[in-house]
Design goal:
Blueprint: H1 26-41, E1 46-48, E2 58-61, E3 68-78, E4 82-87, E5 95-102, E6 104-110, E7 116-122, H2 124-136, H3 141-144, E8 148-150, E9 161-166, H4 172-180, E10 184-189, E11 194-196, E12 201-203, H5 206-213, E13 218-219, H6 227-234, E14 240-244, H7 252-255, E15 261-266, H8 278-284, E16 289-296, E17 306-313, H9 320-344, H10 376-385, E18 392-396, E19 399-408, E20 425-428, E21 433-436, E22 441-449, E23 455-456, H11 457-462
Parallel strand pairs: 9-10, 9-14, 10-13, 14-15
Antiparallel strand pairs: 1-2, 2-3, 3-6, 4-5, 5-8, 6-7, 11-12, 15-16, 16-17, 18-19, 19-22, 20-21, 21-22, 22-23
Helix pairs in contact: 4-9, 8-10
The structure holds nickel (II) ion (NI).
Nickel (II) ion is lined by residues 89-91, 131, 135.
Length: 472
Amino acid sequence: MSQFEIYTFDAPVLRKKARPVRRINKRIRAQLDAMLETMRAANGVGLAAPQVGISKRMVVIDVGEGPYFLINPEIVSQSEETETMWEGCLSWPGYLGQVERPVRVCVKALDRDGREIWVEGEGLLARALCHELDHLDGVLFIDRAKSIIEIEEEISLSGLTCIFMGSPEFALPSLERLVEAGADIRLVVTQPDRPYGRKQVLMPTPVKQRALELGLEVFAPEKISSPDAIERLKRVEPDFIAVAAYGQKIPAQVLQLPKYACLNVHPSILPKYRGGNPVQRQVMAGEQKSGVTIIYMSERMDAGDICLQKTVDIGPNETYGELEQRLAVLGAEALAEAMASVYEGTAGRTPQNEEESSYAPHLKPGEEIIDWEAPAEQIHNLVRALSPVPGAVTFFGAERTKIWKTKLLPSEGFSFSDDTVPGTILKIDDTMAVVRCGQGVIGVLEVQPAGKNPMTARAFLVGRQGKAEKFG
Ligand code: NI
């Protein structure tokens, strides 16, 4: 068994278009076997021949269901539906990028014995297929990534006893990252199970579910400030308390428990957007930059000294849900880095500038209703800030409908008279309805009338001809 060296970063072979394999012989098979060895030793899920310096069209992939050897692979079809997720590459170690890929692809190739095979991949397999086939054309994931973060692979938190406190999805990457870095998480504190849905079934928080899957001890007190709860936490004698969107005010007695620090992950560039709803508010305000801040917790919410900050750009069409997911992963990385640096005594500590602070409150009733008198950009920001929950709302005649997706358009090219009322539908085509706003025009792409499935604006309007001429 042999292994190859993996070429990285600026190696020219990574940028060449690889040549097709003409004949599958012993030598090709030996190369494929050595590629698989190399990939496994590096803990990868896919490897393309150019990555080991062989400019030929062949890849190996194993996402956990056994290896595929693919020679001269071609994408035959791919779903229109895409998903954006973090991915990395053995040739670009130490980094992760957010890449949009089709959810399903079908690839035709020859296998190790030269027989034609078709591989239908979904999710991670589809992503691996696209990623590896890109390598054959000299394309790297960094060319496609919407954002890239550096990962500190060497972070080790091994031997540090921790209490983790968090509740929603946002906290999951942080919990997982600490486990991965070897932290000794003695207790996971989360909100109690709450009744959910029409049947009011008690549901655990996402953090509780994942903690139990990871075999961690879970504590879900009604009140973290009760003497019993504090006593329970005290018994852990934690080195660190790590907090990510826990959802209760943490009392001073708890903040003082850890030997090193009580650190909080906050998804904004503090002191801006303190409070309970920072991500939605940033998108709603049309911010172009966001980030995460790790603070040393103090009794005043989100006002503690800053330990570490990382920033990212917000995409012009990025939704609240998409940005929050990105910040959750970035926050997890920052948290692990912060804990390691506090432990080593190299961490920074900068007080927040109170004069620059701002507050991000939860949505108030009525804020979800679109004001068509507003500028197009403001309406676009509201729609993406309220996706995937709770959805921006408007009316068409008497019918209430949510608007899930809009697009900014240049207002030249659409003529309307000055007395055209904002909300008026100027034009309907296959992809959108063009609507006049207070300033400019906007494309409405996807809507969802009450009690129905999401549909294109066209499908919605065609079925309702004559009922109204405008939204709002
Ligand atoms: Ni790669």
